[in-house]
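Q: Give me the 3D complex with zinc ion.
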Amino acid sequence: MKALVYGGPGIKEWKEVPNPKIMQPGDAIVKVDTTTICGTDLHILKGDVPAVTVGRILGHEAVGTITELGSSVQSLKVGDRVIVSCIKSCGHCANCKAGLYSHCLGEEGASGMGWILGHLIDGTQAEFVRVPYAENSLHKMPAGVTDEEGVLLSDIFPTGFEIGVQSGYVKPGDTVAVVGAGPVGLAAIATAGLYGAARIIAIDLDENRLIKSKEFGATDYVLASAADWKSQVMAMTDGAGVDVAIEAVGTPATFTMSTEIVRPGGHVANVGVHGKPVELHVENLWIHNVTISMGLVNTNTTPMLLKLIAQKKLPAAKMVTHHFTFDKFLDAYDTFSRAAETKALKVVIQG
Ligand SMILES: NC(=O)c1ccc[n+]([C@@H]2O[C@H](COP(=O)([O-])OP(=O)(O)OC[C@H]3O[C@@H](n4cnc5c(N)ncnc54)[C@H](O)[C@@H]3O)[C@@H](O)[C@H]2O)c1
Ligand SMILES: [Zn+2]
Ligand SMILES: [Zn+2]
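A: Here is the predicted complex, encoded as structure tokens.
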């Protein structure tokens, strides 16, 4: 089969590799019908994630068709159309039982690390992928859900919802600011409405993404490069600050921005993956009674989000801006890595 193989920082190749085989009784082999590229894959290619070794097949998002199953898998069958979750979950360790799939203690990849696909084991940017703990890590696709919608449930929608909206304790009537209107920020914007947010302010440097954020449920937007960006946000909250600030970029500057616009008693929910230390101004924040959360997505809400997408209650399909075939995988990377120019949000690659 062919796959997108990491060759060290800056190096990737779409090339012939051996087909994956069943290794454990709980495994499934999935023929990948649709996959996509995540900002995290770009981080890996920059060399920011040293745990990814040369020769690794990248990718942790896919929709596909089961072609083979290990002997212990009972709830799935060959031919099922499934969403591959970006997080492995054995389903029976202490952390899985608590819904903390991101820290599944199953041995596959590394015990205690849920994100293993395209990281510690071969991933989904391939014609076929081996998925461990298939019964819990795959989700059957209901009829009527398209591949483009399903693939956004591997990572993007659960991440924005769980680590942004749920961890930020969004509640009815809240004003929510989302710093970063990339796919993850837009997913947070789209799902903040599920908990009754009244006003949702998108903040980004890219005006195209801000305009797009309105299609996902933003009521207002603020250009982060504006000298008065902060007073614009404060003016929308009568000077009090937002109830919940969701950080969906992953830089020290945007984390600090999020802490500066939250009202006393509010929440800062950090979703961004940070590669550098961030200064936390406890000397200013302590007196504001704010809470700060952060984390790796669990994907335990995927079945619930899938029901909403099946009823067309979340604008998932709008996230897909570009389509490629597998033989154009490198073009897909090129388009995605120049998102500001190409206006790419999610690029899908299909077999
Ligand atoms: N916690 C998790 O489990 C998890 C899972 C998936 C992704 N992530 C992380 O979430 C973050 C967002 O992912 P994405 O795919 O949407 O990324 P992205 O790079 O597509 O989007 C980031 C957005 O931030 C904007 N931005 C950059 N600097 C800014 C600034 N100073 N002010 C305002 N906006 C600014 C960019 O214009 C862009 O639109 C990344 O850090 C990603 O690694 C976290
Ligand atoms: Zn991802
Ligand atoms: Zn587990």
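A quick observation: The chain has a mean pLDDT of 97.
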